User: Which sequence fits this backbone?
């Protein structure tokens, strides 16, 4: 809403603008119900647990070190059928660890985004957060 401008004439015939300020009335912000708060707390708790688990796994990978001058590490992968693959190639193991680190970093970022979204107000309420009410004076 724009300010309203009226032009008035003073006693010597000159015109001067008179600006009437606009009035804005804010509608109270949305307050979530107790059930909504509890639901968000449960969601946040589970996301926190997932976040902690991912960070712990990422830390364990950071602590895992391999020297490339000798075969001092072995990695084994077992599928659901029980088939086992084992390697002690340091270059391959390092590539796998780097891949895992990237995957954990991505998963941690996704959980952090979900945690932030848990605090968002539903869209239908955002529309009513601010409303301009015209000046009727």
Assistant:
């Amino acid at each position: 809403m724009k300010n309203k401008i009226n032009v008035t004439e003073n006693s010597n015939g000159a015109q001067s603008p008179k600006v009437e300020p606009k009035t804005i009335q804010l509608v109270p912000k949305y307050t979530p119900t107790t059930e909504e708060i509890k639901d968000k707390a449960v969601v946040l708790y589970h996301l926190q647990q997932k976040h902690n688990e991912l960070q712990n796994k990422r830390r364990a990978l950071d602590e895992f070190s391999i020297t490339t001058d000798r075969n001092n590490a072995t990695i084994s992968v077992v599928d659901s059928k029980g088939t086992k693959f084992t390697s002690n190639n340091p270059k391959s193991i390092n590539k796998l660890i780097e891949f895992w680190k990237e995957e954990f970093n991505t998963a941690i970022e996704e959980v952090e985004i979900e945690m932030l979204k848990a605090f968002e107000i539903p869209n239908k309420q955002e529309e009513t957060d601010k409303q301009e009410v015209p000046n009727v004076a």
